[in-house]
Amino acid sequence: MSEVLEKISEMLQKGKRKDVAKLCQQAIDEGLEPNVILTQGLLAGMDVVGAKFKANEIFVPQVLVSARAMKAGSEVLKPHLSEEGASGRGKIVMGTVQGDLHDIGKNLVIMMFEGKGFDVVDLGVDVAPEKFVQAAIDENADIIGMSALLTTTMPMMGEVIKAAEEAGIRDKVKIMVGGAPVTQEFADSIGADAYTEDAPSAAEKAVEFVSA
Amino acid sequence: MTSKERVLTAFAHKEPDKVPVDFGGMCTSMVNCQVVAQLRDYYGLEKKLPRINDMSTMTAFVDPDLGEVMGVDVQNLDNFGDTYGHHNDAWKEWEYRGTPILIPANATLHDDGKGGTFVYPEGDDSVAPSGHLPAGGYYFDNLERPEEEVDEDDPDLSGNVEDYMLASDEQIAFHHKKLEEYKPLQRAIQVIPGYSCLGDANNIPGPNIRHPRGVRRIADWYMAPLLYPDEVEEVFDQGTDIAIQNFQKYWDEFGSDIDIVYICGTDYGSQNSLMMSPDTYEEIYLPYYKKMCDWIHEHTTWKTLKHSCGAVFDMIPLFIESGFDALNPVQCSATGMDPQRLKDAYGKDILFWGGGVDTQHTLPFGTPEEVREQVLRRLEIFSKDGGYIFNTIHNIQANTPIENIAAMVEAVKEFNGDR
Question: What is the ipTM of this complex?
Answer without folding.
Answer: 0.89
